[in-house]
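For practice. Any example?
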Amino acid sequence: MTVKNESKVCIYCAGQGYFQLILGGSETCACCGGSGKHKK
């Protein structure tokens, strides 16, 4: 059995690590902590 050690892209921010706010600026994605990778 082979275990893959791959980090999948965060589904909430699509791997960007942040959200673009409507009023301008950006906010760090709370799900991945700004890394853009999905935490298990």
Observations:
- The chain has a mean pLDDT of 84.
